């Protein structure tokens, strides 16, 4: 929320805000593009003020009205109404020129009849606007843009869709609320302004990502299959068979173990027990080998030849 200050002095000595007579008349209304003359009056489209004929000024000057002059515009055929100020009194007699957005609010066509009455409005203290497009969020400083645009307005009416021109683009804003009344004057006021979310705006969805777990990369060195020098393929070793706990047998504990002594036990397969018949057969086999063996049965060699002298 922010505060906008406006100042407007039409005369050096404004008249009191009480009046005895009321200005009320009907005009044929046209958009500003129908205004005759070489001058471009696009400034009318940028605000909330109308152009009236000179006879209106002559009549208003004879009435005890409040300055600055504010008017209520009513389309009796559609029962729509809005409020505005006056910019100039240069229109043809019986005709008034309105901004295009004002004619749309009143549901008026070119040449339609509009009732114009002078009114006295309370000074604004608060207003709320709703942009009619999310494009309004693209403006860098919407508060400053709106403050500058409202300088061309004299009053606000709850329910109106006003148009402001910025950077050669038209932005429409609906007046959602005004205080202290449904129609207020914004001349010489300190007004707090607030914005509603633009029409059709969707808040971006927030995605919460779970923290990623650290990835552990395992590098396998010397991957692949080996080759033998003889060209033969290496046999594939069978995968080990899991051991069943029932196959594990516990051994006999060493009851003679003493602290500080290391005992190395060599496992050996126990020899099968020999029967009497096996012993007898072994003795016979040894006896047969002894009977065939003759000790020193080879031919001896002597260093001295027989019948000769010694070497």
From TrEMBL:
List, in alphabetical order, the GO biological process terms annotated in this UniProt record: retrograde protein transport, ER to cytosol; ubiquitin-dependent protein catabolic process
Which species is listed as the source? Answer: Oncorhynchus tshawytscha (Chinook salmon)
Per its UniProt record, what InterPro entries does this chain match? Ufd1-like, Ufd1-like_Nn, UFD1_N1, UFD1_N2
Is the keyword Cell membrane assigned to this protein? no
Could you tell me which residue ranges the Ubiquitin fusion degradation protein UFD1 N-terminal subdomain domain spans?
Answer: 23-121, 124-198
Gene Ontology MF term list: polyubiquitin modification-dependent protein binding
Name of the featured protein: Ubiquitin recognition factor in ER-associated degradation protein 1
Q: Which domain of life is it from?
A: Eukaryota
Its family remark reads: Belongs to the UFD1 family.
An example GO CC term for this entry is:
VCP-NPL4-UFD1 AAA ATPase complex
Known function: Essential component of the ubiquitin-dependent proteolytic pathway which degrades ubiquitin fusion proteins. The ternary complex containing UFD1, VCP and NPLOC4 binds ubiquitinated proteins and is necessary for the export of misfolded proteins from the ER to the cytoplasm, where they are degraded by the proteasome. The NPLOC4-UFD1-VCP complex regulates spindle disassembly at the end of mitosis and is necessary for the formation of a closed nuclear envelope. It may be involved in the development of some ectoderm-derived structures.
Provide the alphabetized UniProt keywords: Ubl conjugation pathway
Its UniProt pathway annotation is: Protein degradation; proteasomal ubiquitin-dependent pathway
Pfam families associated with the record: UFD1_N1, UFD1_N2
Q: Where is this region: Disordered?
A: 218-247
């Amino acid at each position: 929320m922010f505060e906008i200050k406006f100042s407007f002095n039409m005369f050096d000595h404004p008249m009191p805000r009480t009046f005895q007579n009321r200005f009320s008349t009907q005009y044929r209304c046209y958009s500003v593009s129908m205004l005759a003359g070489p001058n471009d009056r696009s400034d009318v489209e940028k605000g909330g003020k109308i152009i009236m004929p000179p006879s209106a000024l002559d009549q208003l000057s004879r009435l005890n009205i409040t300055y600055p002059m504010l008017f209520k515009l009513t389309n009796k055929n559609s029962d729509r109404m809005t409020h505005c100020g006056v910019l100039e009194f240069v229109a043809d007699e019986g005709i008034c020129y309105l901004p295009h957005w004002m004619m749309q609010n009143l549901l008026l066509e070119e040449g339609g009849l509009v009732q114009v009455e002078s009114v006295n409005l309370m000074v604004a203290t608060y207003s709320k606007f709703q942009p009619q497009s999310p494009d309004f969020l693209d403006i860098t400083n919407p508060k400053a843009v709106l403050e500058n645009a409202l300088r061309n307005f004299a009053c606000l009416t709850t329910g109106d869709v006003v148009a402001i021109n910025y950077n050669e683009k038209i932005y429409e804003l609906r007046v959602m609320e005004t205080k202290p009344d449904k129609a207020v004057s914004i001349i010489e006021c300190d007004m707090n302004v607030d914005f509603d979310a633009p029409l059709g705006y969707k808040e971006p969805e927030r995605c919460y990502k779970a923290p990623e777990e650290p990835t552990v990369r395992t590098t396998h060195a010397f991957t692949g299959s080996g080759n033998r020098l003889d060209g033969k393929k290496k046999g594939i070793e069978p995968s080990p068979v899991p051991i069943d706990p029932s196959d594990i047998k516990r051994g006999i504990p060493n009851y003679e173990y003493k602290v500080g002594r290391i005992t190395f036990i060599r496992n050996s397969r126990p020899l099968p027990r020999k029967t009497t018949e096996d012993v007898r057969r072994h003795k016979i086999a040894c006896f047969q080998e002894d009977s065939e063996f003759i000790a020193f049965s080879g031919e001896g060699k002597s260093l001295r030849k027989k019948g000769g002298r010694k070497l």
